[in-house]
Write a structure and sequence with these properties.
Blueprint: H1 2-21, H2 36-54, H3 71-77, H4 90-109, E1 119-122, E2 125-128, H5 129-153
Antiparallel strand pairs: 1-2
Helix pairs in contact: 2-4, 2-5
Length: 162
């Protein structure tokens, strides 16, 4: 009888291993991070959009103090400082943010490796294209941190911390 149990239990090992391998793993909150420019861009874009979507529309005009950018102004400023005073409603802001994030993604995807070292003139400086795109990621991450603080001050939890 003991031998049969051993055979039965040993037969279960591959079955259990197969079941464990088929378990669904939760989504990776760091999807994209450490995957180069495209991964980092996907990461910050997803966080920005998900946070913009959970902040209530009535909080888009909120600002921490007079003279400091409001929620909507921060979201629009990241992509186009010229529009931050005119785009103020949540649907307009999210549409502009999505459009702008997609435009940066599309523009970067069209670059050839040789384009990355080409110089461009921006904000009074001559910089390599690669540096310009790196600055865009850094800039959006800076304002992501600002928006996380704004959300927290308004009792809004980031979707990825739930």
């Amino acid at each position: 009888m003991r031998g049969r149990w051993k055979i039965f239990l040993l037969g279960l090992v591959p079955f259990v291993a197969t079941l464990r391998a088929q378990q669904v793993t939760p989504p990776d909150p760091y999807d994209g991070i450490w995957e180069g420019y495209e991964g980092e861009w996907r990461y910050v874009s997803n966080l920005l959009l998900s946070l913009a979507e959970v902040i209530p529309a009535e909080k888009y005009s909120w600002r921490p103090a007079p003279g400091v950018r409001s929620v909507s102004e921060v979201l629009v400023h990241m992509e186009s400082g010229d529009l931050e005073k005119t785009l103020v409603s949540k649907p307009e802001v999210i549409a502009a943010l999505k459009s702008s994030l997609q435009a940066v993604k599309n523009d970067h995807a069209q670059l050839k490796v040789s384009d990355l070292n080409r110089n461009v003139h921006i904000h009074g400086k001559t910089v390599p294209v690669e540096g310009m795109y790196l600055r865009i990621i850094c800039h959006d991450n800076e304002h992501l941190g600002q928006l996380i603080a704004y959300a927290s001050l308004n009792g809004v939890k980031s979707p990825w911390s739930q």
